[in-house]
User: Fold AraC family transcriptional regulator from Arcicella lustrica.
Amino acid sequence: MKSEIKNFGIYGKDADTISEDLIHLVSIDSSCRKHNWMINPHFHSQLYQFFFIESGSGVCLLNDKSKTFEGVHLIIVPENTLHGFQFKEDIKGYTLSVSSRIIEKITDSDKELFFEVNKARMINMNNHFEEFNDAMDSIRRMNQELSMNAAKTHLFLETILLLLFVKIFRFRIDKSKDYLAATKELVYYRNFMKMIKSEIPTNKSIEHYTKAIGISKTHLNRVCQAITGKPTKQVICDFLLSESMVLMTHTDKTVSEIAYQLEFKDVSYFCRFFKKQTGYTPAQFRIDSRNNINQKILYNY
Assistant:
């Protein structure tokens, strides 16, 4: 039987233990050994995490996708992102956890950096050792600072963190459309996504968002197309689809309960929506996900 998805602070601790000024760094092997190398699917509502994998292998679950990794990787997990791991015992690296308030504070003057750290993804760095080692220099400097009792430690850490984000931005492993969008467009997109994450968008009109953001429907559509390659309506559909997949894969809620939680007018409408987006009924998806996604996160390593 599945348990509810946990909203943790640092893994295993209550969400309300997160300080607004939290910057926490720990080696992956030391923190995961006590959990037998298995980190169950969970999320953090006010916390970002960055996993710097120096060596070793495992399986990473990000939202509804499970991927294997081996060797040098960077894994970025923004707030409210479902994630979990099955590490092998040879894993080496660091987990950097940073409160949402600190992230917003240090990226406030550069929306491209904010957008960069808000994309949940795994970056294979096996062919980019120089760039990865450059980032690890910042991690090692932060680790050294955290072990000291020096003046202005938090200011120092925030400065190093900003430098680290610039280094991550410069990786540019994925030469995508994201960097082509103007800064103002990134602000509009950021505000739009914050709105649909904070209030269930099922019964909200696009005009509801454009009025709050201060742009036209056509403009918001151009913003979404420039950044995601998809129109506004599909961005909303993708969000609802992702939320429903997470609930079906990692909870025991019935399809009716999920439809109700996501504010669909009735379960039939939810089922039609889901099948149109995926080609599967919710019940078919749930069976398939339990046979594949969860088996992969548990055993394929």
